[in-house]
Amino acid sequence: MHREIRQPLAAAALALNFASMVYGVYFIAAGRAAVLPTLFGIALLAALALNLLLVLLNYTKGAGKRLQRWGTAYLIISMVSVGLMGLGGAVANSVYAPRTEALVQFFLVYPGYFAVLIAGLLHAGLTRSLAGEYFDQGENPPRPSGGRILLLIKLFLVLLSGFFNAYILLTDYAGLLQIWISQSALFLAFFYAALTLWILKLYGKPGCPVNIIVGLAGLVLFLVFLLPLLLTPGAAKQAEDEFRAAFGEDWPARLDPAAEKHFLKHRFSLPAYFLGYPQNGYTVERDILFYEGTEGVDRGIKLYFDVYKPLLTQPDLPGYGTTIIRIHGGAWIAGDKGFANMMQMNKYLASQGYTVFDVQYGLTSLVTLPDIMNLHGFLTSVAALIPKDTDISAVAAPATVRGPFTLDDMVRHLGIFTDHLAEHAGKYGASLDSVFISGGSAGGHLTTAMALAMAGREHEAIFNPAITVKGYIPFYPANKAMPILEAIGGAPEWIDVEQLVRPDSPPCLIYQGRSDGMVPWETARSFKERYLEVGNEACAVIYLPLAAHASDFQFTGYYNQLFLYYMERFLALHK
Length: 575
Prior knowledge:
With 575 residues, this protein is of the alpha/beta class. The protein has helices at residues 2-30, 37-60, 65-92, 98-129, 146-170, 176-183, 185-203, 209-247, 257-260, 270-275, 343-351, 369-376, 380-385, 407-428, 442-456, 482-488, 492-495, 521-533, 558-574, and strands spanning 282-292, 302-310, 323-327, 355-359, 363-364, 402-403, 435-440, 469-475, 508-513, 539-544. Strands 1-2-4-3-7-8-9-10 form an eight-stranded mixed beta sheet, sandwiched between helices. A two-stranded parallel sheet has the order 5-6.
């Protein structure tokens, strides 16, 4: 009977693995133009799940030694493969040149994707062809050797770590692990499932209480880490409702069809989650100096920016004639342009026709990393061990941008950049008549301050009046971190940016994770309520379930894909 079950399952696995491989080749060639991503995304998940099920059935029902070894090989390949794909997505967000990003895809992402499918294909084929080796009756599992016991202990500890990772995913735990886990949960689901089966096979006693407990633990972890994916359709509906409420029921009809054909066509694509969208069609100039301080608090600082431009100037591109200023985060004490500012977003926007400026500003030494850690209530035991005067944050920021800067100084530095932009716009092909500002965390706070101040025309002594702000896009803006903002110091409107909201303030679109342990989601809600209080409805918050701080770092993760779908339409509507 077990043989009869495995034969059709193996046939289905063969078909799904092969179809997923073929579609993967097509998707790599077609990129964002690929059709039927939902159908083949489901087929891909089904292939991966069937592969694991076959390994489980072959183990529990007494398949021969050769098939058992192939099953173990599949599990190891599966664990390595999801790690490669996750790592490749992160590394792709950390390189400037299209050629380098292509190398990352070819040496990390694509090998991971195709290796797990080829291994599944071989295992399913062997399951069908080695039917005669089923049921090695009377063969008792060998007594575990010392090496096997040691390996079992190590793997079991890794499995236990999954429950801590699950806790991080399901709560607003504030720590750096949260950033990676929430957006990589789908990879973790298959990693822990494969790990569980490997432990079961090594232990070698089907049906015993230990194996049942381990199996249930693995099943729980698998389901928990599937949750962000399962919640994505509901998040997409909520995002659509929020977008329509802020920008009108008729917003799709107001889009330019010529520009719309370049947009992401789907709110979420599973093939893109696994394979990514390599960015091209842009050029980048790095490390352009726009300010060098020679006196006072600014003495010795040097501020630079990178500019990303479209490779070709095409009037039908969505970003034609539009400029975006991007401001990095880092709790006002750390961070930088480039790698620390979601580079793939900058590259994508440039490929869509926007001229994108990734800008440095002065970072403060008036507060320290322990101050930030204690504010958020995470790792407090570690924070207590760090001497108060230890400047650990310096390792995360260039020395040339650090000083005893207040919020007034940071805003002033960004104002100096606007003067540089106004003077040299022609050199970079940048428009001054259609400018958007975007940034995350502390950069989201400064984005909000800068956009509202420039649009309000009450701070023209700081910001160049030749620039017209059409809208702004804060990611998890840290607008309510009052103890730290007050410690840094500055004008009241920079400490509490809600004071700058006016009835005619420009439209905004906010990215906010529901499980953000560093910037609570209520911060974004409060800001939108402030818009409504003054009679301005043009502010939308896209809340993302189980999303952590900086959960947009994986460019083709479920969170960033969904937000980018609306972000590029927001830009097109208001440019």
